[in-house]
Amino acid sequence: MSNVFMGMPTLPVFGDGNLHIDEPFPDAAHRELGNTQMRANLRHATHTIRDKRLKVVGELPDWEELRDAGAAIKNQVMADLPAMLEEFEKNFTARGGVIHWARDSHEANKIVADLIREQDTDEVVKVKSMATQEIGLNEYLEEQGISAFETDLAELIVQLGHDKPSHILVPAIHKNRTEVRDIFLAEMPNVDPNLTDDPRLLAMAAREHLRRKFLTAKVAISGANFALADSGTLAVVESEGNGRMCLTLPETLITVMGIEKLLPTKDDLEVFMQLLPRSSTGERMNPYTSLWTGVTEGDGPQNVHLVILDNGRTAALADKYGRTALNCIRCSACMNVCPVYERTGGHAYGSTYPGPIGAILTPLLTGIKSEENSSLPYASTLCGACYDACPVKINIPEILVHLRGEDVDSKREEKKLPSQMDLMMKGGQWAFSSGKHLGLLEKALPLGKLAAGRDKKIKRLPGIAAGWTQSRDIPAPPAQSFRDWWKKDHEPVAPTPDQEK
Questions:
Q1: Cα 396–chain centre separation
Q2: Which stretches does UniProt call biased (Basic and acidic residues) (predicted)?
């Protein structure tokens, strides 16, 4: 059973699976910046989605009120999560569903694999799911001799291309249609060898490939966008209809869902059915919204299971500054406006969750000390565009600053001697603590001007400050400080005796 039932864990159990990155973000970003085709693809795609979103959001006079409502509902869920999970479990099981609790990816993967084996099959079809990507389910099933076929078009492209997703909503956003055509020709069985990069023909090829899987699959695996506590209902929203096929045709349906996906009642779903499509795809409503409540005799899957996943979520919930990251509804609006993501792409983040939300969610799920994940909170300019775009008002810049502080504090604890940054901050604290101290420091301004050289620019700084001058010059400091100039030209001069008369 999930840690959330026992309150906040004394020793947080952090998440695993595809959450730990292999190299620091700066190193990965530097490499990805050299991929000019990827950058061009990303710029075109994100700007298209961004413009569509602005148009449909502008149609609603109460958009900001909807954002406030969404944030309030999710905050209520996080405050009442233990009781709400118990309510959902009671209602879901009362309607014929079976719930399994998983502390981490290892437990979740084993549960799913065992359920598949019970159906005497070695193939499953999948609805697009961030939770199953997070736990590395496809890779685990492959090790167990079970083939998992992605049915979302973008996920199919990534899977056939032996690639990794780079975007929450559009996993193959880094690929253009010519690259997709090449992947289909190389990897898709029985594909027309004369296939062109016409989007309609590509979609038809994928449809023909997937239809055989839909009609023969005994087991389907899905995620869930929302779960309604008052009725035990699950909801999946998608744009292609592949999800509807997976959720209705197979005899067995296995859903993997994070504990944070709950909503209190069906009335709350109305708010998110307006927020989510506009924020994610720039549509007024979602093309396919599927809801199911347990088992309905003679209609749809008769063997319905739900794996409720913690995997670091209670650890994130225990962080009073970062817990609102769990409010995320996976719309990807923050990614589409982020200048860092647009230039580096999702692969640079190394985790299942890229972009601004990934820069806070991944370290919260895994712990700021985990492997290289401590570099992710620095993958931002703190411009605030992500906060403005977030439909549930997650203050991503504020959480980024909080996590940066946690990172600095954790590294300070590990080291006996103060770092260069510690010394610089101490020096700054001394300098700005009084006017006398600042005056002493200002006397060194002419030395800085002398060090700048003939072109009046400082091209290289020592130590940790060298990072600043790797890609920019600093203008030489003035010979005179502002305070000295003001004192000389603006402060009143004492009157002479004659003037006093």
A1: 10
A2: 484-501
